[in-house]
Amino acid sequence: MNILEKIVRDLISEKRITEARNLLSLFPEEFPHLELEVEYAARNWKAVKRLYENLPDELKEKYREYYEYAANQLNIDYSKETEEALKEIERKNFQGAASILESIVKDYPELVEVVALRYKLALQRNEKRAIEKYRKLLLSLDRTHPALIETRASSRRIGVFEVFTLSLLVALLVTTILAFYTLPSRIEVNVPSSENTINIKPVEQRVEDVLANIVILTENLGKINDSLEKNFSALQENMSPISENIESLKEALTNLESRLSKIESAIARTSNKEPSVSVVYVPAREDRIERAKSLWFLGYMFYLRRDYDEAINRFEIAIKEIGEDNVYFKDDVYYYRALCYYYKGDTSTARSLFEEFIKLFPDSEYADDAEYFLKRL
């Protein structure tokens, strides 16, 4: 189905018979099957029969039912009667026109032209009920019938502009269709003559060189790929022991954390039972140092987690456990206790503790760091 067929059939389905006729009139005898469909929709049986007889043989089978139905409906030739009725209306002989129409309607009650004539007659007589009746009937058969357009033009002047706009739209549509189907009649192609021959041997040689280089490059890429696969396999083998060591280290850290938690619980129970007893007086020095070391490690873990209050608590207990003894991690405990206060934002306490640390441990590896933080406070 081309675009014109679609437009015409859409107009027929919308009961816009006159518009469909006007559109097809721009292509005389080019689309007889569409003209047949339009006249069939208008109940113009004589035209249907005539158009069918002129159809190409390949289309007659498709429209045979149209023809047979029209032949059964076609009993009289209404053209003369219609012309006479129009003349009587022009003479304002409404009674004579009505008589002629009555004779036609007996055989063709749905004939569009007859309905249009009745509509015009009702308008001339100013019979409101008849006007409304035939107007609705004509609208159902052909919404774009000239009788309706003429009535609108006579009742309101703006209808002229509507008809003019419709004509412009139809003209634009036709122009678009013609442009769509119009093709250049001739396309010239300039073919080079045999005189303009080109020596392509150097080009062929160059192409062969490029192909040879591509082959060499492909071989090298294959070798590189093999080497990478071997190295990757070796790397995977070397990573396996490392992964095992990491898992072992994780397990050891987990065990250490568990042990530190148990030690912390034991210290807490001891503190609850004897809160007034100072750790300085614990008789077994080795036990005190071991507990202090565990507290130092546990406090450092809290420091890494940025839980500074818990870290300070462990460092304070560890300092009490250490007392006056000189152990290798003593300066660590003092330094990180001051650092926790610094990161907490307690600047006055941090300043005091850093100054104390520098006095107690001037040779510590943390001394320079302590001075740095003091300058920032």
From TrEMBL:
The keyword tRNA-binding does not apply. Keywords: Coiled coil, Membrane, TPR repeat, Transmembrane, Transmembrane helix. The chain crosses the membrane at residues 160-183. It holds the Pfam family TPR_6. The keyword Nucleus does not apply. TPR repeats lie at residues 292-325, 331-364. InterPro entries: TPR-like_helical_dom_sf, TPR_rpt. This is Uncharacterized protein. It comes from the Bacteria. Residues 246-273 form a coiled coil.
